[in-house]
Design goal:
Aspartate Aminotransferase, domain 2; 13 helices; 7-stranded mixed sheet; 38% helix; 3-stranded antiparallel sheet; alpha/beta; binds pyridoxal-5'-phosphate
């Protein structure tokens, strides 16, 4: 028996762990409604044709060799156009590192800065890989509070900063809540990071998927603060399976000079990210953007259905998400469920509707569950009908 490392034992990913129960349920032959994974391509948001064609052409033109470890220069330039020219973060192509998805970017940043017993501040609730990678590299997690109006509790952040604190992470718009920060909130967090010599890691993978309000990225307020921005192609361009993302190191920040010099070493160790996909990603940034508007219109309708129907249920309270494609309702567990995990598992076996338990997104997620509203309206109504009967304690399947 080969023993696994203690560090591997710290890794968990609730969104995928719940799949084990789904497999059990599937064995019964009953229908499963997947409201658990944020993959647009699995629903009616397919990769746009011009992106697929760029990928096919890249292969046919033999552009499937190793490219630069930092990323294909043309793509890095296009990323600068988006993140600097449009969104305001000061960048040159040398501040950009193309990764095999944002996930790899999270891994590389955490691996580059964390020492054993460091502390990472995460918004409560948060996207789980942030804590998994942080813990894997030996850090402890401190969750900071987000008020019900979506603004961060700045005093709470300040109180949690110790000599061990290394970084603050923001996921904006948020997975799992769909909240988005206003400029004032972003500015306060930037100030805290700069004053306390903390790295500020901002994940803006849902930057284009916002509904009523305008989206404000960290670039608008970063100035010379130690900000690293993460973004990618999985969501906005429906390229989940193609695996492409990037990280951008604020060019104006002198606090980031050593990371800027050293993180590329990690990129060289894994040689390069997928070259044909980078060519497709470049086509995504420079080609037609109409699909994004269509996606947002559809998602807004779907959000409204789920939001309305959830709030009609006794014992469920749901805030209206401003972006992304998740809702994160709070549940009154009554004496019926021991905790949110039992709730989600009971709902799965009773209805076939697969969601994720809130506590998988950190301590602030207790008594919540996450629904992905990517499926079409009919499926959402079918799922909501089942959830309604389940909440009323009536037989569903
Ligand atoms: N960041 C956030 C906030 C996400 O919600 C997700 C996927 O759900 C990712 C990153 C993963 O991105 P990628 O597919 O680029 O690895």
């Amino acid at each position: 028996m080969i023993e696994i490392s203690e560090r591997l034992g710290r890794v968990e990913y609730a969104i995928r762990d719940i799949i084990l129960h789904a497999r059990e349920y599937e064995k019964t032959g009953k229908k499963l409604l997947y409201l658990n994974i944020g993959d647009p391509v699995s629903f009616d948001f397919k990769t746009p044709l011009h992106i697929k064609n760029a990928l096919i052409d890249a292969l046919l033109n033999d552009s499937d060799y190793y490219t630069d470890s930092e990323g294909w220069p043309e793509l890095r330039q296009s990323i600068v156009e988006k993140e600097f020219k449009k969104k305001g973060l000061d960048l040159t192509p040398s501040d950009v590192l193309v990764t095999n998805g944002v996930s790899e970017g999270i891994d590389m940043i955490m691996g580059s800065v964390i020492e054993e017993k460091d502390e990472i501040l995460l918004p409560g609730p948060y996207y789980p890989p942030y804590s998994s990678y942080a813990k894997f590299y030996g850090a402890n997690i401190n969750e900071f509070k987000i008020f019900s109006d979506g603004t961060p509790d700045v005093d709470n952040i300040r109180k949690q900063i110790t000599s061990k604190s290394k970084a603050i992470c923001l996921i904006n718009p948020s997975n799992p809540t769909g909240e988005a920060f206003d400029l004032k909130s972003l500015q306060s967090i930037v100030d805290i990071a700069a004053e306390n010599n903390l790295l500020l890691i901002c994940d803006e993978i849902y930057d284009e998927i916002v509904f009523e309000d305008k989206f404000y990225g960290i670039g608008r307020v970063a100035n010379d603060a130690p900000v690293i921005l993460l973004n990618g192609f999985s969501k906005t361009y429906s390229m989940t399976g193609l695996r492409c993302g990037y990280l951008c190191i604020n060019n104006k920040s002198r606090q980031l000079d050593s990371i800027r010099q050293s993180i590329f070493k990690l990129a060289r160790v894994r040689i390069a990210s997928n070259f044909p996909v980078q060519i497709a990603a470049n086509a995504a940034l420079n080609g037609p953007q109409d699909h994004i508007r269509e996606m947002v219109i559809k998602l807004r309708k779907r959000r409204d259905i789920v939001f309305k129907r959830l709030n009609e249920l006794d014992g469920v309270y749901c805030k209206k998400p401003r972006g992304a494609f998740y809702v994160f309702p709070e549940i009154d567990l009554r004496n019926r469920w021991k905790n949110d995990l039992y709730f989600v598992i009971d709902m799965l076996y009773s209805t076939g509707v697969l969601t994720v338990h809130g506590s998988g997104f950190g301590d602030s997620g207790y008594n919540h569950f996450r629904i992905v509203y990517l499926p079409n309206e009919d499926v959402l109504h079918e799922a909501m009908d089942k959830i309604e009967l389940f909440m009323k304690n009536k037989i569903v399947t």
